[in-house]
Amino acid sequence: MGRVAPCLPAIAVVSCNKHIYLPSFAMSITAFFRTLASRSHWAIHSVWLVVLAGILCANVVDGYFQLQENELRLLLSESSIAVNIVKMEVGGITHLLDTVENAVMAQRDEGQLADQLQGLVRDNPLVAAIAVELNGAPRASTGAISSASTALFSRSTAKDGLPSVSVSIALKPEFWGYKLAYAFNRADAKVAVYTASGRPLLPFANLGNAENALLAESIANMAPDAAALHTQSLRADGARSMLTLQQAAAPFLAGGPLVVGTIISSENSYAHWHSDLLIQVLIWLAAAVLSTLLLMIEARRRRRSELSTEKLQSAMRSRDKFISILMDHAPIMVSYWDAERRCHYANRMYRAWFGKGEEEIIGIDLQSLLGEELLAKCAPLIDATLRGEPQNFEQERARADGSTGYVLSRYIPDMDGREVRGFFVIASDITELKQTQQSLEKRIEDLYSLATTDALTGLNNRRNLLEKIQFEIERAKRYGLNMVFFMLDIDHFKKINDTFGHDTGDAVLKALGALLHDTMRTSDHVGRLGGEEFGILLASVVPEQAEAIAERLRRRVEEMVVWHNEKDIRFTVSIGLADLQADMENPLEDMVKRADLALYRAKNSGRNRVCLADNLLPPAVDNSEGQGFGA
Questions:
Q1: I need a labelling partner for 114 at 20 to 30 A (CA). Which of 87, 288, 331, 410 fits?
Q2: Which Gene3D superfamilies match (predicted)?
Q3: What is the DSSP code string of 433-490?
Q4: Could you tell me which residues come within 8 angstroms of residue 616 by beta carbon, excluding any fewer than 6 positions away?
């Protein structure tokens, strides 16, 4: 144990979590405040507070002007709404004047004219009365035109050759209040209607004498212009408010045009501004107090830290030596073992892998930690390390939770001259890398299978089958071997598809593929050439043997029953045989072509039979009929 004593302080510092490094950012902040704590930087601190105060004041002033601008914009918007409503209603009254004049000109009977006027009053319940004069003499009227009426609209017209017609329409006092009741979006907005002469048609409520006098003066001083607009501040209901006056043309109103007044309260908006002002002041005070306190605290801390800086630097140098060794080897799981194979340090990830606490693992021996089986695997590596030979290896190990993982380990001897005092263990968990590698290998296998296998039958696809046949041809040419190629086709396969459906046709193809796979030898090559056509290569057989094999295969297919969709499906096959002619320019193409011709001969001869290529037939056989095509 005494031999490893020199490295124990560094190990103890790392394993103890009471001492940590400050991150570089935190150290930079600390250095900044230390600099600021000097006497010369108190002036900078004061300037910063002044600048902050200026920014906050500018923000408050800008907020005040923004508030006034928003209130004025809102006031003008609400006023425009009210003026547009008034103009619309004046237009309605003008239309009513036109209606009455037309009725007078069209109706000669006074009784009927009076009835029409009464109907118009009923249709317009806010109209108090309508009176008509013809050439200055009363013609008809309904209702009573009194001084209580809020507005009187009168118009006289005289056309060439027609009598003079005068029409007067009196509105009820509640007319303007009803029309403007829902004009505004804001609940604190108020509206009033006056004539240009100052007579109130819908006066403001709860205005004092001074405010009413100011309002009357403002109306009297307005320019006689439809675009005239007047705004000012005043107090309404004891609250700070803004007033706007805007004219609306009313050509047939006695005392016209109309003046529409709008008042909105600014009290709530200014209350928000005052709150913002208070918050800005509090922010400045908090920043001033907090920054001053931080400077004072940092000044005291600096005085204390300067006394212990030298001692801290010495401890950090001792600790850096051990940490630099670990970081140089990019550790993930780290431990240190002495020459007696007892643990003196294990980091958190190393302990987690074995499910041990810090107190449990310090002082433990290798056999207790690894167990006899794993120790037997690692013992030769450990012995070599203790001889001064670093070891790198990959190993499958069980975790404490029972799962299995892969680690890439490195054993590094701790050398003191020629003496090995112990060794470091640096291990990386490469389980995910291994799983990725296995997944990629499986993917490659799957891709190879997709590229070489027919998806429906599981047999070789056409390309792979022909490549294998070409390889066998080269081998046969080299060693003088025989081989025979079968081309097999299902008889009346289209009829199966048309009668039972394509899913039944697929089932037939699968069943035939399985039969071919199970029947042929492992040295034979079986594949699907396309559609219902299959190819089989028999190596090291002569044509006579191949013909017997083909005949047995044909009978097995004839006896086979495919059960699909609760139906028994039976079918037959036709087979064409051709042997290898190695001296041909393209032996593969020649063999496949002759097998194909033999297959079509089998089709044309009635199907469900085996036919040999021309060169394999006895000379006495006439093949002139075998050049047609069948299905």
A1: 87
A2: 3.30.70.270, PAS domain
A3: HHHHHHHHHHHHHHHHHHHHB-TTT-SB-HHHHHHHHHHHHHHHHHHT--EEEEEEEE
A4: 543, 577, 578, 579
Residue that wins the pLDDT comparison between 272 and 526: 526
What is the CATH code for 329-434? Answer: 3.30.450.20
How would DSSP label each residue in 174-235?
Answer: THHHHHTTT--SSTT-EEEEEETTS-EEEPPSS--HHHHHHHHHHHHTS-S-TT-EEEEEEE
Q: Are 168 and 130 in contact (CB under 8 A)?
A: yes
**Whether 532 is catalytic:** yes
Residue 616 C-alpha from the chain's centroid: 70
Share of the chain above pLDDT 70, in %: 86
Does residue 548 have a pLDDT over 90? yes
Q: The tokens 């289209």 sit on which residue?
A: 494
pLDDT in tens, 355-383: 888 888 899 998 888 888 888 889 899 99
Catalytic option among 69, 532, 585, 625: 532
| Amino acid identity at 90 | V
Using CA atoms, how far apart are residues 139 and 97, in angstroms rounded to an integer?
15
List, for residues 462-473, the tens digit of each pLDDT value: 999 999 999 999
- The fold of 453-616 is Alpha-Beta Plaits (3.30.70)
Closest CA to 353 of 311, 392, 294, 409: 409
In DSSP terms, 490 is beta-bridged to 573
* pLDDT reported for residue 288: 80
Distance between CA 111 and CA 92 in Å, rounded? 26
Give, in order, the Cα–Cα distances in Å from 395 to each of 268, 404, 405, 433, 519. 75, 11, 9, 13, 44
Whether pLDDT at 87 is above 80: yes
How far apart are alpha carbons 561 and 558 in whole angstroms? 8
194 burial class (0-12, 13-18, 19+ CB within 10 angstroms)?
Answer: buried
Task: Judge whether residue 327 has pLDDT over 60.
Answer: no
- Structural domain boundaries in the chain: 37-265, 329-434, 453-616
- Vertex 206: Cα angle to 200 and 211 (nearest 5): 70
Q: Give the contacts of 183 (CB within 8 A, at least 6 positions apart).
A: 78, 81, 82, 85, 191
pLDDT at 92: 86
Greatest mean pLDDT among 46-50, 227-231, 373-377 lies in: 373-377
pLDDT for the residue numbered 578: 95
Is 200 a residue whose pLDDT tops 80?
yes
